[in-house]
TrEMBL record:
Keywords from the named record: ATP-binding, Cell inner membrane, Cell membrane, Membrane, Molybdenum, Nucleotide-binding, Translocase, Transport
SMART domains in the record: AAA (SM00382)
Keyword match Membrane: yes
GO MF terms held by the record: ABC-type transporter activity; ATP binding; ATP hydrolysis activity; molybdate ion transmembrane transporter activity
PANTHER family found in the cross-reference section: ABC TRANSPORTER I FAMILY MEMBER 10, MOLYBDENUM IMPORT ATP-BINDING PROTEIN MODC 2
Residues covered by the Mop domain: 309-374
InterPro entries recorded: AAA+_ATPase, ABC_transporter-like_ATP-bd, ABC_transporter-like_CS, Mo/tungstate-bd_C_term_dom, ModC_ABC_ATP-bd, Molybdenum_import_ModC, Mop_domain, P-loop_NTPase
Gene Ontology annotations for the cellular component aspect, listed alphabetically: membrane
Name of this protein: Molybdenum ABC transporter ATP-binding protein
Every ABC transporter domain range: 1-231
Length: 374
C-alpha cells in the first residue's frame, strides 16, 4: 500500500509545490529548515489547507480534481506542537473524545492498553488543566490514537517540552508506529529525532521536497542537512539481547537478506535472529528489545582482514559501497554490513591508497564506539 500526494499551495511570499509517493507504513519524518513548508504540507494532507492536488491513502482518495473529503470525514489523528486539550474535561473525557463519536465497529479494542502504555492510567480522573506539558502531550497522542486513525500527523510534538519531558516521551514515540498500526508523518527539525524515530525522510527546502529517502539513504548523503551541526553518523536497527555475566550486551542486527555480496562464511559472530552482532559495554540496565545504534564515521576504521592483538571487539565483514572526497585529505566511505545495514567510515586519503580500497572491496569495519539511542 502506498501514499500518493501532490499539492500546490500558493501564498503571497511562499509556494508549496510537492509530489511524492511512499509506503503507507512506518514513520516518515518531514525534515527541513524553519519556514520550508513542513506544517503547510501536513495541513494539506489533513485537508486543513484546501489547494489543488491529490491525496491517496492506499485505495482511498481524499482529494483529487473532482473530490475533496472534508477534514472531519478523514480518519486521521493530528497532534500539534502544543496539545490543545479541553481544559474543563478530565483526562479520561479528553482521551475518549473522538473514541465516543466512533461507531462501535471502528472503536479500537485496545483502549486500556494504549492508556496504560502512555502511562496515563493514574491521571484519568485529573482535570486537563492540571497537567504538565509532557502529560498533556501524552494525552494528545492517546486521544489521536483512540480515534482509530488511518493516518497520524505529528507536528513537532516535542518542541514545546523541556529536556525531562522530551526524555519521557521519546521512548514512547519509538513504539508509536507499532502501536498505532498506521502510517505516521512526523514534522521535526531535530536530527536526533529523525535518527531515533524515522523509517523514511522527506527532506524539504523552500516549499519543495528535495529528497524522498529511506533513513539509510538520507544518512548516506555526505552533505545531508542531518549533519549540519554534527559529524556524519550511521544508524543500525536491531535487537538488544540480555547482557552476559562479563558485562557485554549483544546487539543483533540485519534480520533480512543482505544482497551485499559479503560471503556468508565471513560473518564472525552469527546470531539466531540477525545477520550480525555488535557487542556493547556499559548498557547492562538497558531495556531488551528493538533498539537503534548510532555510529560516528570517525569511530569506524577499516582493515583488509580481521585484526588480532587489538582492543577493538567489533570487527564486522563489510563491503565498500561508495567513497566521497570530503576535502582536506578526508574520504567518507559507506560500508555495507551483512544483512544490508550501512555504516559510514571516515578515513584519510592516504589510508585508502595504502589499503587500495575501491568501491566493491571486501573489508572489515572496526567499530571503536557505538551509542545506544535510548
Ligand atoms: N497563514 C499564512 N499566511 C501566509 N503565509 C504563511 C501562513 N502560514 C505560513 N506561512 C508562510 O509559509 C511558509 C511555510 O510555513 P510552514 O509553517 O509550513 O513552515 P515550517 O517548515 O513548518 O516552519 P517551522 O519549522 O518554523 O514550523 C513560511 O514562509 C510562512 O511564513
Amino acid at each position: 500500500m502506498t501514499i500518493k500526494a501532490a499539492f500546490k499551495v500558493q501564498r503571497a511570499r511562499f509556494t508549496l509545490d510537492v509530489n511524492f509517493e511512499l509506503p503507507a507504513q512506518g514513520v516518515t519524518a518531514l525534515f527541513g529548515p524553519s519556514g520550508c513548508g513542513k506544517t503547510t504540507l501536513l495541513r494539506a494532507m489533513a485537508g486543513l489547507e484546501r489547494c489543488p492536488g491529490h491525496f491517496w491513502l492506499g485505495e482511498q482518495c481524499w482529494q483529487d480534481q473532482h473530490l475533496f473529503v472534508p477534514v472531519h470525514k478523514r480518519r486521521l489523528g493530528y497532534v500539534f506542537q502544543e496539545a490543545s486539550l479541553f481544559a474543563h474535561l478530565s483526562v479520561q473525557r479528553n482521551l475518549e473524545y473522538g473514541w465516543r463519536r466512533l461507531p462501535q465497529a471502528l472503536r479500537r479494542d485496545d483502549k486500556e492498553q494504549i492508556i496504560d502504555w502512555l502511562g496515563l492510567t493514574p491521571l484519568l480522573a485529573q482535570g486537563a488543566a492540571e497537567l504538565s506539558g509532557g502529560q498533556r502531550q501524552r494525552v494528545a497522542i492517546g486521544r489521536a490514537l483512540l480515534s482509530s486513525p488511518e493516518l497520524l500527523l505529528l507536528d513537532e510534538p516535542l518542541s514545546a517540552l523541556d529536556g525531562k519531558a522530551k526524555r519521557e516521551i521519546l521512548p514512547l514515540l519509538e513504539h508509536l508506529s507499532a502501536q498505532a498500526k498506521v502510517p505516521i508523518f512526523y514534522v521535526t527539525h531535530a536530527p536526533e529525532e529523525v535518527e531515533r524515530l524515522a523509517d523514511r525522510v522527506l527532506l524539504m527546502e523552500q516549499g519543495q521536497i528535495k529528497h524522498n529517502d529511506s533513513l539509510q539513504q538520507a544518512l548516506a548523503r555526505p552533505h545531508s542537512l542531518l549533519y549540519k551541526d554534527d559529524e556524519v553518523a550511521g544508524i543500525i536497527s536491531g535487537q538488544l539481547r540480555p547482557s552476559l555475566p562479563d558485562g557485554r550486551v549483544p546487539f543483533d542486527y540485519g534480520a533480512g537478506d543482505s544482497g551485499t555480496g559479503v560471503d556468508e562464511a565471513d560473518v564472525g559472530e552469527l546470531s539466531d535472529a540477525g545477520a550480525g552482532r555488535i557487542w556493547l559495554t556499559g548498557h547492562e540496565g538497558a531495556v531488551m528489545g528493538a533498539a537503534r545504534l548510532r555510529i560516528l564515521a570517525s569511530d569506524v576504521s577499516v582493515a583488509l582482514a580481521p585484526v588480532t592483538c587489538i582492543s577493538i571487539v567489533n570487527q564486522l565483514p563489510a563491503q565498500v559501497l561508495s567513497m566521497t572526497d570530503m576535502g582536506q585529505g578526508r574520504v567518507l566511505l559507506r560500508l555495507s554490513l551483512k544483512g544490508g545495514e550501512q555504516i559510514p567510515a571516515q578515513l584519510s586519503a592516504y589510508s585508502i591508497a595504502q589499503l587500495d580500497l575501491k568501491i566493491g572491496s571486501n573489508c572489515y569495519a572496526l567499530i571503536k564506539a557505538a551509542a545506544l539511542l535510548v
